Amino acid sequence: MTRVRVEGFTISLDGYGAGPNQDVRNPLGVGGTDLHQWLVPTRTFQRALFGADGGSTGIDDDFAARGFKNVGAWILGRNMFGPIRGPWPDMSWKGWWGDNPPYHVPTFILTHHARPPIQMEGGTTFHFVTGGIHEALDRARDAANEMDVRIGGGPNTVQQYLRAGLIDELHVAISPVLLGGGERLFEGTDMRALGYECVQFVASEKATHVVLRRQGRNET
């Protein structure tokens, strides 16, 4: 059965999943890159992004690796694709990640402005969805072919899927940094009322990993 998952979503000690003043020089907002000190050195991240053989192992890498297992499609908010707002001025921007993004499966971008699909290297095809979160999930489920759908962010996108009761499992990494502003992941979201409970809690030297699961949804 296809599950809908959030994996490796990192927040600061003060609850922010992105810092303030996001722009092309600060795609995660000012200070936002500090959130991912647990992730970047891992063997999984180094392999997925740079094709490198090295990288750290252990708890952080275990959680990074589980985020790519059995994923058949991704859903991203438009900010996760690029800094452009409003209508597309042209078709030159093809994402933050260069010619070979780390997704390697069909990836659906939530947007209000239509755009033709973009086929990238490594198996990633970006599809732009203007019909909202339910249309994106329906299309992602079909593309995943019974594998899981991973919701990649940003915070507002995750919130929308949480409030709609559509996320089965959420892995949050709490990083020991303070951002002081930006976008809070759980802003206005009552996780207890939505039926989520903590099923795993593990600390490494660089992050505390928490897995939340909706009651009644067993891991398969």
UniProtKB/TrEMBL annotation:
Domain Bacterial bifunctional deaminase-reductase C-terminal intervals: 9-205
Gene3D superfamilies (alphabetical) = Dihydrofolate Reductase, subunit A
Q: Which domain of life is it from?
A: Bacteria
Which InterPro entries does this one have? DHFR-like_dom_sf, RibDG_C, Riboflavin_Biosynth_HTPR
Q: What is the name attached to this protein's record?
A: Dihydrofolate reductase family protein
Q: Which organism is it from?
A: Variovorax humicola
